[in-house]
Amino acid sequence: MVNRQRPGAKIGNQRLRRVSAADVAGAAGVSCAAVSYVMNGKPGVSEATRKRVLELADELGFKPNALAASLRRGHSNVIGLVLADIANPFYPELAAGVTDAAHASGYEVLLGHTKDDPDTLRRLVGVMIERQVDGVVLTALRRDDAEAIRELRRAHIPYVQLSRRIPQVAGDYVGIDDAAAARELMNHVVGHGYPTIAVVVGPRASSASAAREKVFAEVARERGMRLPAAWRISTQLSEAGGRAAAEHLFGLPEQPAAVVCGSDAIALGVMAAALGSGLRIPDDLAVTGFDGLPLATSPLVDLTTVTQPRQQMARGSVALLLRRIEAAPRKYTATICRHQLRIGRTCGCVRKEPYDG
Fold first, then answer.
1. Rounded distance between C-alpha atoms, residue 235 and residue 284, angstroms
2. Domain residues of the chain, as ranges?
3. N or C: which end of the chain has fewer CB within 10 A?
4. Contacts (Cβ under 8 Å, ≥6 apart) of 356
5. Are the C-beta atoms of residues 301 and 273 closer than 8 Å to each other?
6. Which residues make Cβ contacts (< 8 Å) with residue 3, sequence separation at least 6?
7. CA-to-CA distance for 292 and 342, rounded, in angstroms?
8. In the CATH hierarchy, which top-level class contains the domain 178-306?
9. Residues with Cβ < 8 Å from 124, sequence gap 6 or more?
10. How many whole angstroms separate alpha carbon 174 and alpha carbon 99?
11. What residues contact residue 51 under an 8 Å CB cut-off, 6+ apart?
12. Which fold is adopted by the domain 1-64?
């Protein structure tokens, strides 16, 4: 028997979380889309499922958003945006670009972030379906998150994959050529002649992180360099993740002369840990990043990195999503934006030109 409590009630000093459509779906063993069909009186589910969902919704105290349901008869003029890890400044910049582009077209944005947790992604997708957004931009997809895409499809909600994608799942995509960018960066670092180079990337379940690590390793092998498993690290996409990776590397019997990172946030964490250990950058340890964030490319840091055109990527994702909302084209589009290798001082290069930002 479910312990039914009034939404918003308190137990002691703790306020209960509002029951969502995802909660009902989990209790009933059905998809969020199925709950949406039932609560909005749409066909597509059996009578037995409809009855079970309604009973559990009542038992759990689920109160569907009547305004959202009425808006869905036309358009809600709201799109969802699901970010990976908001601790990484790369994602707030994408969020700002998506929000500005959406507002310019008369849409509001419902924002969530997953911390790269698949359960959180599933819950957020359920919330997007419950709120009946017109479409979703996803930056948080991992290779095992195909079910989240299927949930959106079952709810007939279009989506665009931004920066990351699930290769085996068809869909619109906006990003850069991660493999080409990683090859350009790694070749530049190897060209300095460092005897040992370590690689630190984000979660390997991310298509972007996986592609970068794969090419970093390929270039090392092609150039005859050792890259033992202990020097290939996957960590969180944050400064904290970079610090943890650096502490691991500094504890090894043999330490690398350079660290090639799969994100600027990770690189900043590696640099902070190195400086805290009394190492000089790049004299004692060369470090490179990937993203081109303002702090990383400022005169204070002057990081060698790959710059991604974040505003262009954000605008492109909104444009593709709105086209799919309004016209539903049959063919999916992959928009590959141009990256740029930005040479700073942290790789060991001596800047000859004035600072360019």
1. 23
2. 1-64, 178-306
3. N
4. none
5. no
6. none
7. 8
8. alpha beta
9. 80, 82, 112, 114
10. 16
11. none
12. 434 Repressor (Amino-terminal Domain) (1.10.260)
